[in-house]
Design a protein that fits this description.
By secondary structure, the chain is α/β, with parallel strands linked by helices. It contains 11 helices and 14 strands. The longest helix has 21 residues, at 93-113.
Length: 337
């Protein structure tokens, strides 16, 4: 199958590109490299033993995107491109609404012009309303606590409306929980710019000595140990979920939302202990104030993914911690620095 991947040089995107190439698909990547590295895709090609096509451009540029579709026939689109830091979205809401919504609108216009009708959308568990019963099901109430989440919420609504207006359109809205880990090779992984926003790279960079200590955002939540509880999923399992969603979309029309998670919640302190146990290392940390936009507990009910996509997570928390540290050890300065 011929697959166009927006944001394919990013963390989840690069792992999905690797899974696509290994499964025998033809891959075209569009990425402006604002928060990613071309080196990630070079390593993907080496790991897969296959090449992909790369275009450096912003997905909001409709004219150039149209040209990419004309030059590279596409059967299905996987849309990762977008800004993704919850805290930053609270500080810079206009940037998030402008970039994340315009990129989705532009991409959909080009797809419909080019008669490409299969779409996999990178959504998020942040679309669920605070206070939803856990584990959260796809039919739970929606509502967000930060602009990043609202861009995913609005993106989902845009795609539902497009599917309704175009009966041949097929879209799977993949609601991710918390991806961590790296490819077991240690050659590709999460490479955040500056101080990480996500827990695992913060842990690995602290243990490596790059950062002084891990900042734990809040220890007064209504959780067993007071720290936030999340559903952590190995990025390789998440990548496999996109291939399963793509197979589903090729055989169905309409728009469907599906959780990608393990169904198991772990607190921040649980992850710290799991990392220490898996790698025989100590994680220095300090408790700080809550981070704006965060909620106490979110973990998935993954039943729908199992029943609809024939997908479930296979890797455990020790695999995630071990693979994340292998990436950090092999690449202490990230890609190509």
């Amino acid at each position: 199958m011929r697959v166009l991947v927006t944001g394919g040089a990013g963390y989840i995107g690069s792992h999905t590109c690797l899974a696509l190439l290994r499964a025998g698909h033809e891959v075209t990547v569009v990425d402006d490299l604002r928060n990613a590295s071309r080196e990630a895709l070079s390593r993907v090609e080496r790991l897969a033993g296959k090449s992909l096509t790369f275009h450096q451009l912003n997905v909001c540029d409709g004219n150039r995107l149209d040209q990419v579709f004309s030059e590279n026939p596409v059967d299905c689109v996987i849309h990762f491109a977008g800004l993704k830091a919850v805290g930053e979205s609270v500080e810079k809401p206009l940037d998030y609404y402008q970039n994340n919504l315009m990129s989705t609108l532009t991409l959909c216009r080009v797809m419909l012009r080019q008669k490409v009708m299969r779409f996999i959308f990178s959504s998020s568990a942040t679309v669920y309303a605070p206070g939803s019963p856990m584990p959260v099901e796809e039919g739970a109430a929606l509502g967000c606590t930060n602009p990043y989440g609202w861009t995913k919420f609005m993106g989902e609504q845009i795609l539902r409306d497009i599917s309704h207006a175009n009966p041949g359109f097929s879209c799977v809205l993949l609601r991710y929980f918390n991806p961590i880990g790296a490819d077991p090779s240690g050659d590709i992984g999460e490479d955040p710019a500056g101080i990480p926003n996500n827990l695992m790279p913060f842990i690995t960079q602290t243990v490596s000595g790059k950062l002084k200590q891990l900042q734990v955002f809040g220890a007064d939540y209504d959780t067993p140990d007071g720290t936030g509880v999340r559903d952590y999923i190995h990025v390789s399992d998440l990548a496999a979920g996109h291939l399963a969603a793509m197979d589903y979309a090729m055989g169905h029309t309409g728009c469907v939302a599906v959780n990608l998670g393990t169904g198991q919640g772990y607190s921040v302190l649980d992850i710290i202990r799991a990392f220490e146990s898996a790698n025989g290392l100590k994680v220095p940390y300090a408790i700080g104030p809550r981070r704006p936009g965060d909620v106490a507990t979110v973990y998935a009910n993954p039943t729908k993914a199992r029943e609809l996509l024939d997908w479930e997570a296979k890797l455990n928390i020790e695999d995630m911690c071990r693979d994340a540290w292998r990436w950090q050890e092999k690449n202490p300065q990230g890609y190509g620095k």
